[in-house]
Amino acid sequence: MDLQNFVNKVNDLWGQPRELGFHGVPHKASAFIVTTLSCLVELIEIPFVVITLTEIEIVNLERGGLGQKNFDMIAVFKDFKRGVFIVYSIPSTSLDGIKEWLNTTDLKYYESRLNLRWRPILKTNIDDPEQFIEDGGWEFLNTDVSDSDYDKFEESDKGYVPSDMQSDSGSEDEEDDKESLVESE
């Protein structure tokens, strides 16, 4: 009886946190992938997967949408020459948990209904990174904001002054700052 209690306590402390994982196909076979605060891990099927989140630039959730049973998760590495890591056929029931994990880890993610051709996208980013940044970076993946909405956001930000920059003192320096802001527009 004491041995069983010990086993149960160890299992409670060190058991695999199944609620933090999801099923998907990272290579050729379906596997259970575990998400942690610092990694994406799959150690059952060979080849094993251990990707630290510091290596990831963005995540794109593809083929998600109403009525879809599965979606794909694409991790784009900060080193564009490395390509992307794709987990295929993740059940749609795991979508909310994955989004929560991405938000918790502060990874930027996008959702799209279509599969993208990542090799040409990354090649373009490598060949002309300045143009990539000028074109808005990864915002072309943002399906929630149309081009006209994006322009409106840019225009509305022109007159933005952070609230912590304002003070209640009413000093002459504050008046000079306001004048210079008006003049620069």
UniProtKB/TrEMBL annotation:
Acidic residues composition bias: residue spans: 170-185
Comp. bias regions, Basic and acidic residues: 149-158
GO MF terms held by the record: nucleosome binding
Keywords for the protein's UniProt record, in alphabetical order: Chromosome, Coiled coil, DNA damage, DNA repair, DNA replication, Nucleus, Transcription, Transcription regulation
Gene Ontology biological-process entries: DNA repair; DNA replication; transcription elongation by RNA polymerase II
A Gene Ontology cellular-component term: FACT complex
Cellular location(s): Nucleus; Chromosome
Chief subcellular location: nucleus
Pfam families noted in UniProt: Rttp106-like_middle
Gene3D superfamilies: Pleckstrin-homology domain (PH domain)/Phosphotyrosine-binding domain (PTB) (2.30.29.30)
Domain Histone chaperone RTT106/FACT complex subunit SPT16-like middle: 22-112
Region (Disordered): 149-185
General function of this protein: Component of the FACT complex, a general chromatin factor that acts to reorganize nucleosomes. The FACT complex is involved in multiple processes that require DNA as a template such as mRNA elongation, DNA replication and DNA repair. During transcription elongation the FACT complex acts as a histone chaperone that both destabilizes and restores nucleosomal structure.
Complexes and interactors: Component of the FACT complex.
Family of this protein: Belongs to the peptidase M24 family. SPT16 subfamily.
Protein's recorded name: FACT complex subunit
Naturally occurring in which organism (per UniProt): Cannabis sativa
Lineage: Eukaryota, Viridiplantae, Streptophyta, Embryophyta, Tracheophyta
